[in-house]
Amino acid sequence: MALRHAVLAALLDGEYSGYQLAKVFDVGVANFWYAAPQQLYGELAKLERDGLITGRQVIQRHRPNKRLFTLTGAGVAELERFASAPAKPLVLRDDLAVKVHAVDHVDPEPVLAQLAERASTAAAKLALYERTLRELRQDTDEETFLRDGERVGPYLTCLAGCRLERTVHDWCVDTARVLRQRARTGSHP
Amino acid sequence: MALRHAVLAALLDGEYSGYQLAKVFDVGVANFWYAAPQQLYGELAKLERDGLITGRQVIQRHRPNKRLFTLTGAGVAELERFASAPAKPLVLRDDLAVKVHAVDHVDPEPVLAQLAERASTAAAKLALYERTLRELRQDTDEETFLRDGERVGPYLTCLAGCRLERTVHDWCVDTARVLRQRARTGSHP
DNA sequence: ATAGGCATGTAAGCAGTTACATGATTTA
DNA sequence: TAAATCATGTAACTGCTTACATGCCTAT
């Protein structure tokens, strides 16, 4: 199973509707797991069938009703079991890296454009994650929060997100610089 | 399509058999794309059917025969088309990050063990990638190689691998330190 | 008015994973 | 003698992506 546990972990933070989870998983925060909305609705239905979560209907005025989901005891137990099972290696798949690998044999212009775009989305994500960190730790400084805070899990994964996006951003910028310089001097057919 | 282009890009480096590609894709070097052997044999068959690669049989003594694959003109054209199409966002999925997200609600011991393991595999990959970089640039220094080298694509993606593994490694070490300290002082039920 | 946000799903198809299957040769 | 390396596949299953479908409310 896969998405399953990411959803359970997300529900540790409180009640969520499918729509709300979709937004969280769209950015990929909180879980290092991307998922499309349709996938979430499907997974939530399965999780409820299996008794790992329960949904309660919330009637709303002026907007569609929604269902908020909470972890059950069985859900928490399943998370516990998952956490102590051996971790699968991280899955990374990147189109852009494949393109850079091939850059000596194809037109570098579109690749440069894509590197610039990736750099700017990484910068945007970084800013978002840094805002999230500030919200999580409130007035406390980071060191104190990590030592005494009650719930540091989401903070730690968000830190991972920051580092990752910074790495991605810097790599894109540096790689683009190399390719642009080569295009200028142009001594490679 | 997905694996497809990663395989085509890998074949820019020369002829490969399914078995050889499997080793490359198992580590994930060269392409930022992991793939299991079975997947590769399947994909190679499809690519040959579609005329993007051609295989030639190599008869061997003392070991099984193999088939080496090369890009065709159509294959290179397909790569060119792929490189200029908009890049899909990078896909990242990580069990371990999900576990860290949940670490305040589950037993941290097994998570610590998994962080240590991840840190050491990241260090091993880093060492491997650094060796690869040295092989690629031979005697030249990095700056010169990136300016004047003929084929920098694989070098640039390998640099990305280095940065990524370093980021992963450091995050695991730092996260483990935070969690160990919390376990010692133990003021959080 | 139109775009965007809220809110939930179904269906079909493709990609990726896990398990199974085989067999010779080299190294420890 | 056992384990690792070379070498190639098939089959079943699960999970993920893409496309489709609906409809109200709010803000510009």
Q: Can you characterise this structure?
A:
The structure is a homodimer of 189-residue chains. Chain A is mainly alpha-helical and 189 residues long. In chain A, helix 2 packs across helix 3 and helix 6 runs antiparallel to helix 8. The mean pLDDT of chain A is 94. The N and C termini of chain A lie far apart (48 Å). The first copy, chain A, has 2 domains: 3-84, Arc Repressor Mutant, subunit A; 95-185, no CATH class. In chain A, 63% of the residues lie in helices and 8% in strands. At the A-B interface, helix 1, helix 4, strand 3, helix 5 and helix 6 of A face helix 1, helix 4, strand 3, helix 5 and helix 6 of B. Strand 3 (91-93) of chain A pairs antiparallel with strand 3 (91-93) of chain B. Chain A binds a DNA duplex (28 and 28 nucleotides) through helix 2 and helix 3.
Task: Assign a percent range to the helix content of chain A.
Answer: 55-70%
Number of helices of chain A: 8
Q: Could you state the order of secondary-structure elements of chain A as H and E?
A: HHHEEHEHHHH
Radius of gyration of chain A: 21 Å
How far do the termini of chain A sit from each other? Answer: 48 Å
Average pLDDT across residues of chain A?
Answer: 94
Strand order of the largest sheet of chain A: 1-2
Number of structural domains of chain A: 2
Query: Biggest interface pair, residues each?
Result: A-B, 74 and 75 residues
Q: Main β-sheet of chain A: number of strands, strand sense, barrel status?
A: 2 strands, antiparallel
DSSP strand count of chain A:
3
| β-sheet strand percentage of chain A | 5-15%
Which residues of chain A form runs of ≥5 with pLDDT under 50?
none
From the spread of the alpha carbons, the general shape of chain A counts as elongated
Protein structure class of chain A: mainly alpha
Oligomer: homodimer
